[in-house]
User: What shape does this take?
Amino acid sequence: MELWLLVGGVVSLYYVIKAMATSSKQQAQKNNGPGSKNEFRATISTSNRVVANSNRDDDDDLATFSISYGYEEEKSKNKTPGKWIKSGESITIKGQTFTGGNFYFGGKLSSLDGYGTEASLVDDSLKIERKPSSYEDENLGYWPKFVSLTPKGRGAFLSWLSSNRSDPETPLGYVFIYFYGIERRITVDSIKQAVDDKEFKSLFNEILRLKGIYGSSRSFSNYATRLLEIMCLLRPNLVSHPELEKTPQRDSLLFKHRLATTVKEEKPVSAELALAWIRFYPEYNLKKPARRCGYEFSQMFTRLYHRKYGDGIVVKPNKTRLKIEYHPASSSLRGISFPQQDLPDPSNLKGPINKLIAIADEGTAGLDAYSRYLAKPDTSRTDIEAVLLLPDDLSDVGATLGLGKFKKWADDAISTKNGLVSVEEFWTYTKSPLPSKINKKEAELIQNLAQKAGYGIAPDIRYHHAKPSADGKLVLFPEGHGKYFEPSKAFSEMGMALRLGAMVATIDSHVEQAELHLLTQLIDHDTNLSPIEKRSLHAYLVWRLNTPSNVTGIKARVELLGKIEKAAVSRILVGVAMADGKIDPDEIKQLEKLYTLLGLDKTLVTGDIHGMSSSKAGMRPASPQSETISPASSSFQLDESILAIHESETKDVQSMLGAIFVEEEPFSESDDSATDSTIVDEETGIDKPHYALFESLIRKDKWTREEVEALCRDSGLMVSGALETINDWSFDKVDAAVLEEDGDAIYVDQEIVEEIEG
Assistant: This one.
């Protein structure tokens, strides 16, 4: 029973399928008419054209699929052989006059694929109805043919052909029919020497024109590019176009030919050609940063390539021969292989491409942060944030992107003000609010912005061991320190000398020209300094002379100096003070303070001044009753031994200067967050945490270091820095230190305490 049921079901299913097939066949015959070939093909119907489902790619976002059937070509009664109508040649078709040419006309021109009529042949013996070029014929399939169009479609094509052929809204199938004719003219007629140079060049320009109008279709753009490439190879001395070598097509003919020629001639592969090799290599895809930041990636790749391989890698010719093959857009043409010189085909060699991939990956990694920033909404390549994320290798690129105004401002400051600018004005170019304090993050931003634009700054925390204040100044200088700058010992020594000299020169809030000249000479006469170091120190000097002086970080280090070193420093200080030819009371007071800081008897200042002045010819001895020493009419000239101090036999002096140059670390662990410790109380002259520590310490005369460390921990302070800050404050108030360290003991001078509180 079950068997009979199964058989019955199979029979029923057979008749259902047969009935459906019969119905479909009848419908097909109805649609196609008698004698139809009943040829099946899938098509994609879009808003402005109908093209077949194939490898031809276009940019339409929306597409609907439908089924259509082929159409039989209308039989032509015209036996006239088809001929090529040149541009400028006049011809009348169905009452319309055509002067643009560039198409085949007649009744008989066979397709070279062996099937039917040439797709582009315009045959006026066929039915033609007048229609505007916007009319989209239902028979515009994937490989459209003039002969297969409906009468209305032929009329629409002729309307476009009689126009300037520039309407971007024209159904693309008509443009392809026109293109097929030019394609045949180039790949068939020109090879037979039937096309002169003038026409050849004219057709080249016509394809470029069409690509510019209809190139939004990747399909048309690719076919047009391929034909242009072939034309460049056929007549390289006649036509060329640089942009063709930048096409993203994997099988770029021009690229392969150029690479093959370079390798055969055993020439270095240029950076440009190497980059094209990467782009065209089928087994490597550029990563997102390289695609998103195309220009920056190409610049990065080029620079890395030159750095590693100089003029380029030399590839040994391989045995694989280059084949130039052309795959036409027209269904009327066959694939064509062009005879070429005996050239290798290195395009798929693993060895060279692996070297290039390594460089491409390195360049891509360098652009990762920059690319991720640009991926954010409302961002631009010209944003300062973006520019600062560029790799150092692209500093000049950054300057052209978003630093044009900054560079103009900086150049003007350098040429008119020795690079001296306010931090506030500099900060406006970061496009962010000015902070109340320059911490590590802000200092690095200043450094990076200047560096990206091609400048250096002073002070630079990395080399000058000081930082600007938010309400202070900084100095710009050209070129900067460079990526691999390492300051020498001589640089550090000179920096200390300039710092001490500036403290003397600025005591009266006015820097004499002679003082500036002297300090400048100290830099210029030091043969141990490199040109970069001298530029940096000149900028640092300008900053020191325009910034309030302090002795932060000096005292703890000068305690390590011997008598000879301290005497040498004192000699520099006196020399600076006397550079302008006079010693004012304020300068003597400052010298006494610095002598005390150095651990020297401040009463030696006057004697040292007299000793230096009396050793100079032409100097008038100073009056013992006068605190001001005035020279003769001739200005004081600094002893050559001072200018050559770093070249003297006293090597200990050099070591000393280097040792005391380094200041206290400008940034503490709490720098990134504003606290009360950074705010100086107007009444006391010192911040609250340090003043609280001072009030705790003055309760007794002697403390152990362990006890002081406990007090500092409670206040969030470091012992050494805290004690020195209090002593600096004490010096400012009464010209003496209130605290003294002796081993593990710390003493409080109660007399000084009374002066401070008095």
Remarks:
- The longest helix spans residues 2-32.
- Residues 1-7, 14-70, 616-665, 668-676 have pLDDT under 50 and may be disordered.
- Residues 52 and 261 are 38 Å apart (CA to CA).
